[in-house]
Design a protein that fits this description.
Layout: E1 3-8, H1 16-31, E2 35-40, H2 46-57, H3 64-71, H4 73-88, E3 93-96, H5 118-124, H6 126-133, E4 137-141, E5 144-146, E6 152-154, H7 159-170, E7 175-180, E8 201-203, H8 204-212, E9 231-236, E10 247-250, E11 260-263, E12 268-275, H9 284-293, E13 299-304, E14 308-314, H10 315-331, E15 335-350, H11 360-370, E16 375-380, E17 384-390, H12 394-404
Parallel strand pairs: 1-2, 1-7, 2-4, 3-4, 7-9, 8-10
Antiparallel strand pairs: 5-6, 9-10, 11-15, 12-14, 12-15, 13-14, 15-17, 16-17
Family: Belongs to the aspartokinase family.
Enzyme class: transferase
GO molecular function: aspartate kinase activity; ATP binding
Length: 406
């Protein structure tokens, strides 16, 4: 018998009729023979309204503990409503909130950005499993946790998605379904480009990067909890059918629940190209990359400034790349000269927390400074920091950066 964890976002339970349709879709899936666990968000905009009310009434005197308790009222209410609606359709249901002895999500004492105790939470899901095996549909409050003293905590933005993926993992579910107000993940914002197309699949890495850059489908933090062995998809509540196609989320997040530091095995060469107002030259980057691509030379990275561009290539390709780019310099008015740098080591630091951790760059670079290791270039993305140091410093730098993880 398949076990499905389905999460309904705020717009999916935005009013009474939507709650009834959502509950009916759960009952329909249950009647097909599936076991279903529901995670529900607060009714659309309820949390923001509660925060606004408390700010107007109390202002800065509101403590984090009080704020968490007030914010929780949205989920406490929607879980009760949803569970009662399921029962009105003839199926047994029980709402599970942090006051319930079966509550599964245990956190630290941080009221507003609580960290989940994964081991304890995993053990606590036994009660939910028993409920499901009895033919009951549990409706769990999204976004909320329980601290060490039994106090209500909140998981921050994307908290309900975190709850859904975490429950999927702990319950060893077959599938996690995220029900929202869009058909799935589109090729771009359909409000900006009418020809945007629905994607059949998207990788966890791709979705995280999209979400980090502003796409509103899922909060990037929630994807760290997506179990690579469990199927997941995003569907539109308007379909009223949990078996709707939507967009399937595939693969694990490469940095999921772990961080790593790698030293590339071969030396990397840096080729620096200088010129006048290079960033204003339309198509310059395209010419540069095409010149190397046409000869089968891989680019490991690029960095650009107003008057310079640095290209990183494998040392074995450096002389060929140097000659090709020199010809580009000769043929392009805005370019003046180029130089081939010494051998460098490329060290990649991967972590799902980079985008959400202030000071993480300094944490990585400070040990190198203390050991007189010069950083020749540094680039970063939402989930990785790449550093280039002198080749002879590579092993030592790799060891020092690895210690940051310990």
């Amino acid at each position: 018998m398949d076990l499905i964890v389905v999460k309904f976002g705020g717009t999916s339970v935005g009013d009474g009729s939507r709650i009834k349709k959502a509950a009916q879709s759960v009952v329909n899936e249950y009647m097909k023979g599936s076991q279903v666990v529901v995670v529900v968000s607060a009714v659309n905009k309820t949390t923001d309204e509660l925060i606004g009310l408390s700010n107007d009434a109390i202002g800065t005197g509101l403590t984090d503990k009080q704020k968490a308790e007030i914010m929780a009222m949205g989920e406490l209410t929607s879980a009760r409503l949803f569970s009662a609606t399921i029962e009105s359709l003839g199926v047994k249901s029980e709402f599970i909130d942090p006051y319930n002895k079966l509550w599964p999500i245990i956190t630290d004492s941080n009221s507003l950005e609580a960290k989940i105790d994964l081991n304890t939470s995993n053990k606590k899901t036994e009660g939910i499993k028993q409920l499901v095996n009895q033919g009951v549909i549990p409706v769990i409050c999204g976004f909320l946790g329980k601290g060490p003293s039994g106090e209500i905590t909140t998981l921050g933005r994307g908290g309900s998605d975190i709850t859904a993926f975490l429950m999927g993992h702990c319950l060893d579910a077959n599938e996690v379904v995220i029900v929202t107000d869009v058909d799935g993940v589109m090729s771009t914002d359909p409000n900006k480009i009418e020809d945007a197309e629905l994607l059949d699949t998207i990788s966890v890495e791709e979705l995280r990067d999209l979400a980090t850059h502003g796409a509103q489908v899922l909060h990037p933090h929630a994807l760290k909890y997506k179990d690579p062995l469990i199927s997941a998809k995003i569907i539109n509540f308007a379909n009223e059918d949990l078996s709707s196609k939507g967009t399937r989320i595939v693969g694990p997040f490469e940095g999921e629940m772990l961080k790593c530091v790698t030293l590339y095995k071969d030396p990397i060469s840096l080729i620096a190209i200088v010129g006048e107002a290079m960033l204003k030259k339309v198509g310059l980057m395209a010419k540069l990359t095409t010149a190397l691509a046409d000869d089968g030379i891989n680019i490991f990275g690029m960095s650009a400034g107003q008057n310079s561009i640095t290209v990183f290539v494998n040392k074995v390709d450096s002389n060929k790349a140097y000659l090709l780019l020199h010809q580009l310099v000769i043929d392009t008015d805005v370019l003046s000269s180029l130089s081939l740098g010494r051998d460098t080591a490329m060290i990649t630091f991967v972590s799902p927390d980079i985008i959400e951790t202030p000071g993480i760059i300094s944490d990585i670079t400070e040990p190198l400074r203390k050991n007189n290791i010069n950083i020749l270039e540094i680039t970063s993305s939402q989930t990785a920091v790449v550093l280039f140091v002198d080749w002879e410093d590579g092993e030592k730098a790799h060891k020092l950066i690895t210690e940051v993880l310990e």
